[in-house]
Amino acid sequence: MSYQSNQASGSFTVESASLSISVSPATSGSPSNYWLPGEQLKVTVSDSISEVVDIYMNIVSGSTVLASNVFLGSVNSNGGSTASTTITIPWQVSQGSTTYSVPGYTAQIYAVGQSTGITSNSVNNSVLFPTKITLSISPNPVYIGQTITFSGSLEFEYPANTWNPLANQNISLQVTNNTTN
Prior knowledge:
3-stranded antiparallel beta sheet
């Protein structure tokens, strides 16, 4: 059996793929200049092709990466447009046999395309410990010209739902002179 040779020609354009992310608080009114453990964040992915995109986080102290490639979730990107998912900042992450607290460090969130392997930009922010202050005033009620005393406690949360005293910290109070009739 003989085969006839065949030849074809054509042209095509190779375009580079791109991937980028943006991160914002999932709850309206939440501050965006820091993140808290347990906080939900909206990650928006812009991908030039359609693929599954994995969301990761590194935990960084200064220039040292303590934990890397911590998986946070995935989203199906829409080639040429955007797709979003919600992730939660964890309280702790493990890298090998070491467990790191996430609050107190910088989190770097980035994405990697599963089919292209392209890594996006990273969005970096400090992860803070939640804090609360409890104050009481005495005497109560307070009258004009009377000396008053504030007492209370400053606490930080770690791990989740466990409040610990935050000792030896200065607290400033600003008391304004409001009068009511």
